[in-house]
Amino acid sequence: VKLGDAVDIIDGDRGKNYPGKEEFSNSGYCVFLDAKNVFGAEFNFNNAQFITREKDQALRKGKLKRNDFVLTTRGTVGNVAHYGKDIKFDNIRINSGMVILRPKNDVIDEKFFNLYLISQKFKNQVEALKSGSAQPQLPIRDLKLFEINLPSLEEQEKIVNILWPIKNKIELN
């Protein structure tokens, strides 16, 4: 199936309320992600920047919910991270160089989707569809066209039960 049929792809706010440099601080209410915070396949909150509650509430789009995934789409394209229950921050927003991938739970298993995002097939599609040389990017219209082999939810669960422990062991080692 097409990726856009299995997940909601949510862009960040790019409107008049987008924070300027003077609105960031080293601590605060809401993490405002930068590409350096999404490294490889995980978050790195060293040097995270924050915005106030008021600025967070002024923004319309781009707020993470637990179990969302973040994908960098400009500059360093293709890095992903999962906003699971193990992340200590309750309020996180994406910047304009990334998107939120929110799995449709009646279509795709969250862990199955995680395995897809770290797969070579996904990485190959990123490489094939990114554009631009000085500032590579991956437009949402192209991202929606990514192909994902999607068995039934029952089969996805069986695959996860086999591959998830292997993934964890690789990360541990």
Q: What can you tell me about this protein's structure?
A:
By secondary structure, this protein is an alpha+beta fold. It is built from six helices and nine strands. The protein has helices at residues 3-6, 53-58, 110-117, 120-129, 140-143, 153-172, and strands at residues 7-11, 30-32, 38-39, 42-43, 50-51, 68-72, 80-83, 92-93, 98-103. The strands form three sheets. A four-stranded antiparallel β-sheet has the order 1-9-6-7. A three-stranded mixed β-sheet has the order 5-2-8. The longest helix has 20 residues, at 153-172. The radius of gyration is 16 Å and the shape is globular.
What structural class do helix, strand and pairing data support? alpha+beta
Strand elements, count: 9
**Uncertain runs with pLDDT below 50, 5 residues or more?**
none
N-to-C CA distance: 33 Å
Task: Please state the average pLDDT score.
Answer: 94
Residue share in β-strands: 15-25%
Q: Biggest sheet: strands, sense, closure? A: 4 strands, antiparallel
Helix content: 25-40%
Outline: globular
How many H/I helical runs? 6
SSE layout and pairing:
Elements: H1 3-6, E1 7-11, E2 30-32, E3 38-39, E4 42-43, E5 50-51, H2 53-58, E6 68-72, E7 80-83, E8 92-93, E9 98-103, H3 110-117, H4 120-129, H5 140-143, H6 153-172
Parallel strand pairs: 2-8
Antiparallel strand pairs: 1-9, 2-5, 3-4, 6-7, 6-9
